[in-house]
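Lecture 7, part B: from sequences to assemblies.

Below are the input chains for today's worked example.
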Amino acid sequence: MTIQTQGGVDPTLQRTITARVNGRDVSGVVDTRTTLADWLRDELDLVSVHLGCEHGVCGCCTILLDGQSVRACLMLAAQVNGRDVETVESLSSDQTKLHPIQEAFQEEHGLQCGFCTPAMVLRTKEILADGRERTDEEVRQDISGILCRCTGYQNIINSVQCAARKLRAGSPAPIAAGTGTGGSSDQNPGA
Amino acid sequence: MKPPRFAYYDPDTVAEAVELKARFETDAVVLAGGQSLVPMLATRLAKPDALLDINRISSLQQLEVGPTHVEFGALVRQYQLETDPLVARNVPLLAAVTHYIGHVENRHRGTVGGSLAHADSAAELPTAAVTLDAEMVIEGPAGRRVEAARDFFAGWMTSTIAPDELLVAVRFPITPADAGWGFVEVARREGDFALAAAAAQLRLDEAGRVSEIAIGLASISDRPLRATEVEAQLLGQLPTADAVAVAARAIEEQVTASDDMHATHSYRRHLAATVTQRAVLEAVGRAQEGNRS
Amino acid sequence: MTSDTTNDAFNDALARAAEAAAPSGGQVKRKYIGRSMKRVEDPRLLTGRGGFIADQKIAGLTHAAIFRSPVAHGRIVSIDATAALAIPGVIAVVTGEDCRAKMNPCMNFGPSTIPQYPLAVDKVRYVGEAVVAVIADTRYLAEDGVDALDVEFEELPPVVNPFKALEADAALLHEGHGSNLAYERSFTFGEVDEAFERADLVVSDTLHWGRSAGMPLETTGAIGKPGLNGVLEIYCNSMNFSYFVWLIATALKLPSNRVTINPVPAGGSFGSKFTAHKVPTLAGFLALQVNRPVSYVEDRLDHLMNSDHHASDRYYEAKLALTCDGTIVGMDVDVVDDYGAYLQFGVGTHGNALSQGVGPYNFNNLRYHLRAVLTNKCQQGAYRGFGSEVHNWVLERLVDQAAEKLGMAPEVIRRKNFIQPEQFPHKIPGGNLYDSGDYEAVLDKALSMIDLEHWRKEKKRLREEENRYIGIGLVTTQERSVFSSTEFWYWFDEPAFPITSSPESATITIDPSGEFQVLLHSQAMWGNSPETVAAMVVAEEFGVEPDKVNIRYADSAHALPGTGPGGSRFTVMVTGAIRGAAKKLQKKIIEIAAHTLEVPPEDMEITDARVQVKGAPEVGLSLGEVAATAYFFALNLPPGMTSGLEEQHTYDHPLTTLPSPDRSDLGIFYPIMGHNCHIAVMEVDPDTGMTTWLDYVAVHDAGTIVNPITLGGHVTGGTAQGVGTALLEELAYDEDGQFKSSTFLDYLIPTANEIPAMKLGHVETPSPYTEYGIKGGGEGGRMATPGVISAAIDDALREFGMHVQNLPVKPSDIVATVLAAREQQKEQRS
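Predicted structure of the full complex, as structure tokens:
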């Protein structure tokens, strides 16, 4: 049993943790009841980790833990001591230089309010890691653990496929703005 | 929705964990994958004095294939059950049912032991354990004991784990090569708890008659149940579509779940028979295919 | 129309609206409007910097948590906060008694005999109603404080069923109102009884539309912060209407210039944040009590139980009268709406129904009898469609039933009854006006995108060969847009505040270096695309690239009159505002350039961010050069002109008229009329009750399209919400008034797996009354989807007598029908 003595602080109530977060080693003192999501948001200012339900259903707080998608609201911060954590800020936090997956979501209108978006983008990164081509129905299944209330998912599926093409091509922007169809088979609305 | 204050312990060994359980008894809860427990903390339905996080206990993370059984440490993640070829090869039904647990984000963290100890009758792993006659390995101050899955589930969200005990592993018998299996679940949405689900595994003799059969049902009672009457009716019989349909009706008498907002009692009765029938036919199909090849 | 005077006013209004919107000279070729544009809002959202309410970092911020009523109906006997206040970090405990002592009741468009406060006073009236607020250093500690409260209730009989609520011996929710009938009114337009008497066929139905909600993934939240000069600053994600601040200031007993509301982006609303006033009122009140900044962000349990935005929960007896050839001649609607414990928006959701009471069909006789009932449930608010989508469902259910009785295909009976293109502008019974439309074009387009004959054959084949059950549904429904505020009060003969304004405003600034800033008013980004729309209109008007335009939102202290998003009005209204400001700015630019270049102003035009001489583009100035002159060289400006390059414009509702005093005519209040046709092919498993999608087509007409890709997003998103309403989502109470849907494990929002792959199409019938001819399209698929799903399920299981009457239709409902039919078939055989 590891009991860290921290200047008289009760280790059952507080811990010092060190984790690799978005490629940087981060240390901090946390209350043992603090959730991972709250630690990332409140202490590390990674506010992309959105709290939608805080009981593990909506998926808006999804992060990558050692490369795997998990609900950050269902873990305690103390549990990531020594682990690797990734939030959407790891792809790009520069609004003028988006990661190809982020670009794909913008081009295909895969977001409206943006609340599930960081989770969807991270999940996209995870599922595309194997480089395999997927059918739309496979993508639909793959993203089904994260709720989106705005898009009806169709343009998220299009975004994932667009991101896959970009990543396979290895080029940052093969698709020009304005080619999205809004999920429509009708390329010329009103024509 | 923030967890209440608790004393957090993260023991390195089973012995330490058992010692803590003995100390706190019912005032402590065990944190494994957290996919059911942490929501209960967040809603403050659970307000334990102590939280025993067993995730650091490396001995609980082993998956071992023995001569007759596969033993899963309590902390083996559900995602591994779903994706590890060793599981698909040796206990294919287990791999198949695991896919229906929540969503992949839950299965990345959720554990075998956590789901079994939580003992939700609507959950997939308890149903698979009952169907496949799994054995629970439980450690307490007096040492280890082994309990059959059928005896382990003791009522609504209740198992026979004593307050000073810890579920450390579960052993699933290796599935015979000629066995066929099937699993059918109906839920409001994919990933939700089952309104009803049936797991079936069976073998056929040379004449094509059922020589062994096990059927387990989720979400029809306060605990996962074996469909004993359906099994009895089919044993020794040719599993034709009609025979299976008729036999499956016998499960209706075992349905005790009352109405809730997602399903009425009478719906569950019909659904239980429907999923039983379909799971058995799926198993028959696989067994016949296996026998042909 | 009741008199010639009304008639004249009506015609004048039409003429003025058409003139105001007329394109200035010929068909204009547009460069940006109509093109799919990447949204300018996206980069910050994609990098996780949406600036949502919970992301706001304010020094010294404290956090509130709420004790929610565990009982449906009861008197608050005592509140003991001793243990809570003893917790280190707990700052204060605030109760309804504090509210009663220091506040006025909250905003309320319903009867004044049904007042409400942000914390319950004396009584609790539903499970989840806020009773006590605990303020602490952290949310964790605030929840510890809530846990430590000891609140005692004297339980009263719960009033759950709205019909029982109307019985004489029912317990009263509001003793001061004297009845659980909050409101009753009957409107008869045309000769309804005569129409039914001479009808060849009358179909009737008993229907229940169950309670669901917008349920955005971000909850409602607010921060109250005591600021300088005694000004209370409120940050909230629910600001719309410029008078929101006035309503909240009134509740807090502060002069309106001592409250400033800072609009914060919302992680979705769908109506749920529409004038959600209690949360900001409470956050402001709490901040005043402790004189510190206080954050109150609902958690999911709060939002599910206490959002003040549960949606329609209606019980119908509805009838449709037809002639034998399928011509609809009248409709008679008797509706009881279970509004819950309060009536904050009056009965506006039924005004929405009356805005398109006849749907796309050509009939003139309509009766609408409404009883709004109080029960021990969370009160209703807004949800995408605001009650008009419910009426769509009822009408389409009746039309489908009539088609079946007459042996007509669903597309045939609808085509027979469509209002024809030459009939627009078309005044419907009740008084609202449909501006334009081509409903056959929409239907034809939808039919061209799906092979109905194939599916009809396939349905037969699958049934015969594989024992599978396929159903096809088709509906054609209206999507009214751009409400006028007269709809808030025409229900009442003596309204307290008969408001007629519902404008939108914009300010365009070209800074000294020629860069564009646009200021929007009385709103924030709610998941719609206000910044992209604004940027596109500015780009269209000045020829700048849209992503060069920066968009900001005014706080209430700087806000011009505005109404904000709601009722699919934003794109139409803000385009009017921006275009109005642009015209003023263009005039000034041209005058400066003409003066500088010594050219007559009428010879100049603005193209590609330049002002230049028509036909001689080399003679001109960049907007930057004009701007430099405007800001720094006053002596070079035309005589009398003042410095600067900024204009604002307030765009009033383009077409609205007053209701007649006797309410025989409700006036024009929702005239910009969109339309759609949805067709669904579904498979239903009769033994599990589960449904799967085989095909889905949605064609919408939202007038001139601004941005096709975002309009498509509204259609798909609205359709997904319609799927939820029709099949999954339910805010359920048991017979004791206990709330059964208190987590996302029981309130079932569709995942990607439950949503069909959709084929989208668009038809563009421009509005004659709006800038560019735009119509609203924000409420999207939800206007149609519940109807098309009901129709497809019925069609699949017709041999079992399936008839969807209750939403959501659950697997157990479907199987119960199938089993009963089988039982009956068995009896008949024996």
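Note for the exam: The mean pLDDT of chain B is 97. Keep this in mind when comparing with the next example.
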